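Consider the tokenized backbone below.
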């Protein structure tokens, strides 16, 4: 399926657009290809774009003072990624976004997104809907980290996103869950 159709199918799950409206929206995007390990956003960057994943997988993470990675998000096909705090508040990036696997994305600038949201009410609705869903997912993840044990977090992730385990190396899943690679390996083998 081509990039245009993937985005159109994604958008029309939540809003209806005429062909002309979708054409105007799609014209705001830039099609980009990235290689595994390539960074889309580096810590300290000015962030002006957000990314819609067509294929591959991205990860959003930060490194602490000891260079230990904490993964905030994986972005699989039809998911969005950026440093949203930096994007919306116009300060330097605090997180890194890079490719877990080769990725094809559509990117849109903040200025184009804001302009098209004002021009097409349904697009504004779509972005509010997507932001609200993202906020709710982040809240669920935070509550899970605070209240669930490691096994429960692992089982929930496996149930919600089974394809993630084929796309993402286990050491990255361990980082996302906040556990060691060895702990994840024990969970994996005990659940089979």
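A designed sequence for it:
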């Amino acid at each position: 399926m081509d990039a245009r159709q993937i985005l159109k199918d994604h958008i029309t799950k939540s809003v209806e657009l005429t062909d002309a409206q979708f054409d105007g929206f799609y014209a705001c995007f830039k099609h980009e290809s990235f290689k595994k390990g390539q960074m889309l956003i580096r810590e300290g960057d000015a962030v002006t774009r957000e990314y819609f994943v067509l294929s591959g997988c991205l990860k959003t993470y930060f490194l602490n003072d000891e260079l230990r990675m904490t993964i905030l998000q994986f972005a699989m096909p039809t998911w969005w990624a950026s440093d949203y705090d930096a994007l919306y508040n116009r300060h330097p990036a605090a997180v890194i976004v890079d490719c877990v696997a080769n990725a094809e994305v559509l990117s849109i600038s903040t200025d184009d997104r804001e302009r098209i949201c004002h021009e097409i009410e349904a697009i504004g609705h779509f972005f509010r809907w997507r932001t609200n869903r993202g906020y709710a997912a982040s809240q669920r993840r935070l509550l899970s980290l605070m209240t669930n044990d490691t096994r429960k977090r692992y089982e929930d992730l496996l149930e919600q996103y089974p394809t993630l385990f084929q796309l993402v190396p286990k050491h990255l899943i361990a980082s996302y869950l906040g556990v060691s690679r060895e702990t994840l390996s024990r969970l994996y083998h005990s659940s089979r």
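The domain at 1-124 is CATH 2.60.120.10 (Jelly Rolls).
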